[in-house]
């Protein structure tokens, strides 16, 4: 056999094996987590565990609802803050900024993505928590004294503080992906719009953003996935109070990642405690994977449509 063909075949099989191993690792992790979580089902059904907010391991009660609600509340606040600011920044970089300005701003945005989460957490404790406690909460509570702003938590450690910190952490993802997608919009589309008398902003709004809309949605979903899985920064500023159902953005929240990290040291102290924590990890993995697959699916569809 030709030695060159033998090397090509060997290289292809080795790379396929490595690729398959990496992909199967995600399924292996999910399988291990679910297998370690199954003993907790002897205390209650999976529906009761996911829908109950009563967390008392010493009584054999492992309700995860408060942690799941806290996860989505904090993530929702982060996305509400991050999406409009990130989109406007992406539009500016893609449509208005010249090459020199883009060359300065883009590395700074990439730098934000590389900062350790613990640094964001420290910044949140020093800056964001006092800002929420001393200024934002008094003003908003007096101006809008109703759901979802009514709260008796005056510490500043809240879902809003965690959401603000998370929004800064997901900025780079939303900005980078959205800007790249908008820059793939054909230049001819802009020229046609401008030749018909549209202004620059009308062209961006009705031509560029509309054409890039699937990719922009994917950028938001990828940012959402990052926010769902963030741990340390959220743990430091969200308050993390057990058995508290957050009903306001000023209430404390206890998202799943913070809960898993905070209770890991107690895994072996109470029967079934470890299984409940593994179930929480499995739920977090499933939700994060679902949003990631949705985001990448939209991006792949966009690429095929543009091919």
Please tell me about this protein's structure.
With 307 residues, the protein is mostly helical. It has helices at residues 3-37, 46-51, 65-96, 99-114, 117-143, 159-183, 187-195, 200-211, 213-229, 232-237, 256-263, 273-306; strands spanning 55-56, 61-62. The protein has a two-stranded antiparallel ribbon. Helix 4 (99-114) packs across helix 6 (159-183) and helix 11 packs antiparallel against helix 12. 36% of the residues are buried. The model has no long low-confidence stretch (mean pLDDT 88).
Which key phrases capture this entry?
single chain, 307 residues, two-stranded antiparallel sheet, 12 helices, 2 strands, 74% helix, 1% strand
Largest sheet: 2 strands, antiparallel
In N-to-C order, the SSE pattern is: HHEEHHHHHHHHHH
Low-confidence stretches: none
Estimated radius of gyration: 23 Å
In round numbers, the mean pLDDT is 88
Largest beta sheet: what is the strand line-up? Answer: 1-2
Helix content: over 70%
Helix-and-strand structural type: mainly alpha
Distance between the termini: 38 Å
Shape: flat
Strand content: under 5%
- Number of DSSP-assigned strands: 2
- Given the structure, what is the number of helices? 12
């Amino acid at each position: 056999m030709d030695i060159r063909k033998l090397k090509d075949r060997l290289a292809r099989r080795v790379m396929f094996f490595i690729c398959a191993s990496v992909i199967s690792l995600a399924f292996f992790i999910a399988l291990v987590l679910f297998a370690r979580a199954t003993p907790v089902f002897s205390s209650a059904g999976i529906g009761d565990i996911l829908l109950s907010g009563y967390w008392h391991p010493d009584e054999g009660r492992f309700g995860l609802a408060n942690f799941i609600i806290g996860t989505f509340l904090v993530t929702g606040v982060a996305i509400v803050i991050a999406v409009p600011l990130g989109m406007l920044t992406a539009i500016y970089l893609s449509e208005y900024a010249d090459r020199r300005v883009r060359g300065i701003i883009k590395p700074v945005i990439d730098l934000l993505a590389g900062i350790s989460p613990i640094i964001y957490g420290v910044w949140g404790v020093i800056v964001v928590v006092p800002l929420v406690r001393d200024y934002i909460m008094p003003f908003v509570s007096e101006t809008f004294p109703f759901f979802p702003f009514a709260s008796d938590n005056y510490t500043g450690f809240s879902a809003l503080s965690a959401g603000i910190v998370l929004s800064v952490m997901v900025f780079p993802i939303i900005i980078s992906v959205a800007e790249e997608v908008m820059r793939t919009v054909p230049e001819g589309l802009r020229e046609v719009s401008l030749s018909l008398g549209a202004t620059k902003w009308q062209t961006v709004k009705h031509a560029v953003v509309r054409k890039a809309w699937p990719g922009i949605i994917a950028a938001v979903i990828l940012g959402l996935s990052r926010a769902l899985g963030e741990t340390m920064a959220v743990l430091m500023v969200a308050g993390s109070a057990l058995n508290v159902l957050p009903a306001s953005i000023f209430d404390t929240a206890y998202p799943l990642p913070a809960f898993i990290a905070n209770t890991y040291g107690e895994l072996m102290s109470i029967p079934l405690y470890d299984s409940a924590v593994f179930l929480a990890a499995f739920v977090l993995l499933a939700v994060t994977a679902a949003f990631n697959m949705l985001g990448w699916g939209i991006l792949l569809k966009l690429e095929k449509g543009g091919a």
